[in-house]
Specification:
- A hairpin with a 5-residue loop joins strand 8 and strand 9 (127-132).
- The chain has 4 helices and 9 strands.
- With 189 residues, it is an alpha+beta fold.
- It has helices spanning 26-29, 63-67, 139-153, 169-179, and strands at residues 8-16, 23-25, 34-35, 43-47, 51-57, 73-80, 91-105, 108-121, 127-132.
- The protein has one domain: Pnp Oxidase, Chain A (Roll), CATH 2.30.110.
- The chain starts with 7 loop residues before the first strand and ends in a 10-residue tail after the last helix.
- Strands 1, 2, 3, 4, 5, 6, 7, 8 and 9 form a 9-stranded antiparallel sheet that branches.
Length: 189
């Protein structure tokens, strides 16, 4: 799904030429290569539960070759608004993406990336532990993408989605059972 600039509250990107990142202390992470609002003006162009398209300004397509030495992993921290109204506060993610495609177009470098790692903050240290996210993804990010997709399919109105939601299945089942007049509940077996 396309991401509008207004949805992104914070964005920072680091690069690594190793995909075997497991644990990073913040002092070892260091300052980001790119940060939202500063040159080369990185943007998240689109996002899904399994990948992201990121772009940034560049002066020439020749920088493409030099850039390849920093790959294949992009560590991306981003804070996004919940335009669906389902969450009371913005959602924050730190994820590792494998860069699959790099393309230059009209003064911007575009990175096509697939989700590889989920950065989990350590509760007692300034450390991020990274777990493999290729198979199961990141649950909160998947839900946000689904909610945004539902909102887009219902137009720009900000009404609450009234259909079945798996994260609310049992609550919705209880409500549905109460709405049926004369509905007998099956006895315990």
């Amino acid at each position: 799904m396309k991401v509008t600039r207004e949805l992104i509250l914070e964005l920072a990107v680091w690069f690594s030429n190793s995909t075997s990142v497991q644990r990073i202390h913040l002092r070892d992470l260091g300052p980001p290569t790119f940060i939202l609002g500063k040159p080369p003006h990185p943007l998240i162009n689109n996002i899904s539960a399994g990948g992201m398209a990121l772009s940034f300004e560049t002066s020439s397509p020749r920088q493409l070759d030099a850039f390849h030495s920093h790959l294949p992993l992009a560590l991306v921290y981003f804070k996004i608004q919940d335009a669906t109204g389902g969450h009371s506060s913005p959602l924050s993610f730190m994820a590792g993406y494998e860069v699959r495609r790099v393309q230059y177009l009209s003064g911007r470098m575009y990175l096509g990336m697939s989700l590889a790692l989920d950065g989990v903050p350590h509760p007692e240290e300034l450390v991020l532990d990274f777990v493999d996210a290729r198979r199961y993804g990141i649950a909160c990010l998947t839900k946000w993408c689904e909610d945004m997709d539902r909102q887009a399919s219902h137009g720009e109105c900000r009404r609450t989605f009234s259909g079945l939601r798996l994260d609310m299945l049992l609550n919705q089942l209880d409500i549905a059972m109460m709405e049926l007049p004369g509905r007998a509940v099956c006895p315990d077996m």
